[in-house]
Design a protein that fits this description.
about 70 residues, mainly alpha, 3 helices
Amino acid sequence: MRENPYDRISNRTLEIVEKVSDRIAQIFKGTNPYDQSPMTKEEFMMRFNQMPLEERMQMLERLQGGKK
């Protein structure tokens, strides 16, 4: 019986995704996926001041509990 071309494409795609996933896991092995180190007040203010105005306003609204 002949294999369905869609099955061949799907199987090949899955193989490629697995290889990419394995390679990424190899590259980032032993690293923390989330940067959870605390920031100093100076670092936070520097990052905050570099944000576009719109992002700053959104952050302030989230911190205040939404728009009033």
